Amino acid sequence: GKQTVKERMETTNTRGFGVVMVGGASGSSIRTTSYTRRRRMRIMMKNQGLANQDLSKRRTRDIKPPPPPPTTTTRRHLALGTFIWGSVFASSSSSSSLALDSECASCSDSNSSLQPGDKAFRVSNTGLRVLDVKEGKGDQASKGQVVVLDWSGYTAGYQAKRIDNTSGTDNQFVFTLGADPPQAIPAFEEAVLGMRQGGVRRVEIPGELEEALAYPVQKNARYDRGPVPFSLGGRRALDFVLDNKTLKPFNKTLLFDIRLNNIRK
Questions:
Q1: Cβ-contact 212, 188 below 8 angstroms
Q2: For residues 22 and 33, what is the distance between their CA atoms, to the nearest angstrom?
Q3: How far does the chain reach from its first CA to its final CA, in angstroms?
Q4: Does the model's pTM come out above 0.85?
Q5: Does residue 150 register a pLDDT over 70?
C-alpha cells in the first residue's frame, strides 16, 4: 500500500510533465531530468512571452494610422463648380454688358467725363457737339467764302487712332462754304460757319450720327467730300470704324480739331 519515494516521484513527474520513466533510473537522475525539463520549459515560456510582447510592440509600432477619408471634391464636383461659377460669371457679365449698353448712350460723350476746369461741349440742333478751344480774332466765315483749314481727326470711340493731322504740312483742306454740291462733310460745314480766322474749334460726331454728319457708309461715295485722310494708315483706321458692323454706335464716335487759317474772299 505504501509507495516508495521513487514511485511517488515517478507519479508526480508523469502527472505533471508527462515524463515517461525508463526503469532502472535513479532518483537523482529523475530529479535532474525533471528539473532540467522544467527549466527549459520556463525558459521557452519566458522567451515565448518576450517574443509575443516584442511582436505586439512591433505590430503596434508598425501599425500606421488610417489614411484620412477621401475628400468629396472629385473631378465631377470640380467640373460642376466650374460650370456653376462660369454660369454666374456669364450671367453677371451679360447683365453688366446689358447695363453698359443701356448706359452707353453717353459713353462717347465727352461731356459725361469732364474734369474740374474742363469746358463743356455745346450740342447743336443736329446733335453735333462743338467746343471753342480758341477764339479767333479775324474775319468771320460765311457761306460762299473759300476757307483754308488745318485739321486733325481721331477715332475717339475706338482706340483713339489718328486719322490725320495736317498741321505743319502742305495738305490743308480748302473748300467753299455752302457749295452745291457740298465740298465738306456736314460736321465741317456746320463747325466752320461762323468761325473767326485764327480760331480753333473741336467737334465731336456721335457714332449714331456718323452718316448724317460725317462720311457716307457707301465706299464709292465716302470721300466725295472732304476732309480726306492723306495717310494710308489714317484712312484704314477710319474705314475700319465706318465699315465694322460689330461695333456699337458709341465706338464709331469721331473727334476733329479745326483751325481756320485763312478766308479767301
A1: no
A2: 12
A3: 170
A4: no
A5: yes
